Amino acid sequence: MTADSAPAAGGAPLFGRIAFIGIGLIGSSLARLVAEQGLAGSTVCTASDPQHLAEAAELGLTTETAPTIAQAVAGADLVIVATPVGAYEAVGAAMGPHLKPGAIVTDVGSVKQATVRDLGPFIPEGVHFVPGHPIAGTEHSGPRAGFADLFRDRWCILTPPPATDPAAVDKVAALWKAGGSMIEIMDPGHHDRVLAITSHLPHLIAYTIVGTATDLEEHLKQEVIKFSASGFRDFTRIAASDPVMWRDVFLNNREAVLEIIQRFTEDLTALQRAIRWGEGDKLEDLFTRTRTIRRAIIDARQA
Ligand SMILES: NC(=O)c1ccc[n+]([C@@H]2O[C@H](COP(=O)([O-])OP(=O)(O)OC[C@H]3O[C@@H](n4cnc5c(N)ncnc54)[C@H](O)[C@@H]3O)[C@@H](O)[C@H]2O)c1
Ligand SMILES: O=C(O)C(=O)C[C@]1(C(=O)O)C=C[C@@H](O)C=C1
C-alpha cells in the first residue's frame, strides 16, 4: 500500500504532500514518477471508481488512499486533478472548501478553456491555480496502464491565468521537468485551437473510419479484420482510446473542434472532386506537401 518517497535526487522533495484526484493512466503515471524520484514527502489518491482505488493501493502508487476528495486534498501542497474533463465541476465543488491556503491546484486535462471555466470558480483566494496538459498518452486507461516514463521528451503545456504567482508555475514546471518533459506556457484558448487540429480531429477521424468499417456488411467486416495490416490498424489503436475521456474532450472543446471539422470537410470535398475529375496533379501536390510535414515532425523529435 505504500510507495516510499525518498528525497528527490540531489535535494529535498519538491512538495510536502501531493494529492491525486483520479488515478488512471495519467494520474498513475505521475504518481509513479513522483514515487520513483521522491518528489513528495507523502502522496494520497482518490478516485470515483472503487476498483481504481483498490488497484492503486495494491500497486503502492501513493503513500495513502482516501475515500473522498475532501479527505484527499486536506493538507495537500499540490493537488493534481486527473479525471475526465466532464467531472471537473463536481471535482471543483468537492475540493474547493478543503484546499489548504498556499496550496497549488493543477490538472492534466486535454482541454484548457473548460478547465478554467469549471475548476476556476472553486479555487479560493490564496490558492494557486496552474492548469496543465501533458501531450503524451496511450489508448489504455486505468492505474495499471500508467508508467513513469510516459512524459519523457514530450511537451507539457501550462495555461496559468495571467496574475498567477510565477513561483507556483515554476514548481509545477519542475515536476514535469523531473519526468523529462519540455514546458510551454500558453493561453487556454490558443491551446484548445492547436490541440483541436493536432489531437482532437485525428481522434475523431480514427473513430469515424473504424466506425464506418464496423458498419460494413458482415463478410466485408471479416475481411477488414483479416487484412488490417498497416494503415487501418494504426487507426484502430487511436479508436480504442477511452470513450468517456474523448466524449468529454469533444463536448468541452466544441467551438474549436467544429471549426476544424468545417475546414477538414471542405478539404475532403476538394479531394473528392479531384478524384472524380481525374485531377492527379492536385492529389500529388497535396501528398507531397503532407510528406514534408511528416519529415519536419521526425526531424524536430531528433533535434
Ligand atoms: N489518456 C490520454 O492519452 C491522455 C493524455 C493527456 C491528458 N489526458 C487527460 O487526463 C485526464 C485523465 O485521463 P486518463 O487517461 O488518465 O483517464 P482514466 O480513465 O485512465 O482515469 C481517470 C480517473 O479519474 C477518476 N474519476 C473519474 N471521475 C471522477 C470523479 N468525479 N471524482 C474522482 N475521480 C474521478 C477515475 O476513477 C479514474 O481513476 C483526462 O482529463 C484526459 O483528458 C489523457
Ligand atoms: O498517443 C496517443 O495515444 C495519444 O492519443 C496521446 C494524445 C494525443 O492526441 O497526442 C491524446 C490526448 C492527449 O490529450 C494528449 C496526447
UniProtKB/TrEMBL annotation:
It comes from the Bacteria. GO terms for biological process: tyrosine biosynthetic process. Keywords: Amino-acid biosynthesis, Aromatic amino acid biosynthesis, NAD, Oxidoreductase, Tyrosine biosynthesis. It is an enzyme of class 1 (oxidoreductase). GO terms for molecular function: NAD+ binding; prephenate dehydrogenase (NAD+) activity; prephenate dehydrogenase (NADP+) activity. PANTHER family: PREPHENATE DEHYDROGENASE, PREPHENATE DEHYDROGENASE [NADP(+)]. This is prephenate dehydrogenase. It comes from Caenispirillum bisanense.
